[in-house]
Write a structure and sequence with these properties.
It comes from Streptomyces kaniharaensis. By secondary structure, this protein is α/β, with parallel strands linked by helices. The protein has a domain at 7-166 and 201-227 and 267-286: NAD(P)-binding Rossmann-like Domain (Rossmann fold), CATH 3.40.50.720. Helices cover 37% and strands 17% of the residues. The protein has 9 helices and 14 strands. The strands form 4 sheets. The protein has a 7-stranded parallel beta sheet with strand order 3-2-1-4-5-6-11, with helices on both faces. A 3-stranded mixed beta sheet has the order 12-9-14. 49% of the residues are buried.
């Protein structure tokens, strides 16, 4: 992928896909988002959009033919891990099937797949690119199958990301940061596990790394995790402090009793490759506590 303006197809239209699309558009590229239904939220509304059912071969091939992209970013769902656990066939059809149909239609196009920390079991504190993938759940198995399928086509890079956060007020399933900040600011309690660890990464960093790596010649797998390993409990209490809320509103619950039950206990990533990629020099991800401070301070200034 060269530096001139390109037509980029983003398979997906949710929070992550739209933020990547916005970044690509700001860099001068023509961007088309794609999903089964036109996005109902404000995310990416000024970008192009085309319908697609990622689990249907004809639909995927028609998408590539209609949009004629120079490069493709794959960031589609379903990403609701609990839903995937309850609906394994549909999850596999969307991710593995979608990857298979994209692989058939890509030709020589450059592609980047945004994947997940759920490809690991969570028995270790953190995972690098050269650690063996052993998915923790259905979502992890489906994403790993998609990784393997697309990597086999050639000019493909997989960017595995840890827990993504940022303001997502209009999302159907707002991320952990948004949910905690909104609930705590309203004086409502939140129940979070103290035995579930993440290396959260700001959405802005994901968008920058995605567009930077898409423009590179690198293939294979790269990890993007934040520089701090933190429990959801400690993070939620930090958010409470930023919001001026009573930290007692954050209640402790074991992971097995929460919506995070089917996630790996240690959902943390680090990168052994990134320090050796010159394109990523100076693009170190921001610390989650620092970013939480800034995001909430900016919100207060806008009121």
């Amino acid at each position: 992928m060269t530096d001139h303006r390109l037509r980029v197809l983003v398979v997906g239209a949710g929070y992550l896909a739209s933020q990547v699309g916005e970044r690509l558009s700001a860099l001068g590229h023509t961007v088309t988002l794609s999903s089964r239904h036109r996005p109902a939220t404000a995310h990416g509304r000024h970008l192009g959009w085309h319908p697609v059912d990622a689990g249907d071969r004809r639909s995927v091939h028609a998408l590539l033919a209609a949009t004629g992209p120079d490069a493709v970013v794959v960031a589609h769902g379903p990403s609701d891990i609990t839903w995937c656990e309850a609906n394994p066939e549909q999850a596999m059809a969307a991710h593995r099937g979608g990857a298979r149909y994209l692989a058939e239609a890509l030709g020589s196009r450059r592609a980047l797949l945004i994947s997940t920390d759920n490809v690991f079991p969570g028995s270790r504190s953190s995972y690098g690119e050269y650690d063996r993938a052993e998915p923790a759940n259905v979502y992890g198995r489906a994403k790993l199958a998609a990784e393997d399928t697309l990597l086999a086509t050639g000019d493909v890079l997989v960017l595995r990301v840890s827990l993504v956060y940022g303001w997502d007020r209009d999302g159907l399933r707002p991320n952990f940061f948004t949910t905690c900040a909104q609930e705590l600011s309203r004086g409502r309690t939140v129940a979070v596990p103290d035995d579930h660890w993440n290396s959260p990464v700001l959405i802005d960093d994901v968008a920058v790394w995605t567009t930077t790596l898409l423009a590179s010649a690198h293939t294979g797998i790269v990890h993007l995790g934040g520089p701090r390993r933190v429990s959801r409990l400690a993070w939620a209490r930090h958010i409470a402090g930023c919001c001026g809320a009573d930290p007692a509103l954050v209640r402790t619950a074991p992971q097995r009793s929460t919506v995070y039950a089917c996630r790996p206990r240690n959902a943390c990533l680090h990168s052994e490759r990134a320090p050796h990629l010159p394109e990523l020099a100076g693009l170190d991800p921001v610390d989650v506590l620092e970013a939480s401070n800034r995001l909430i301070a900016q919100e207060k200034e806008c009121r």
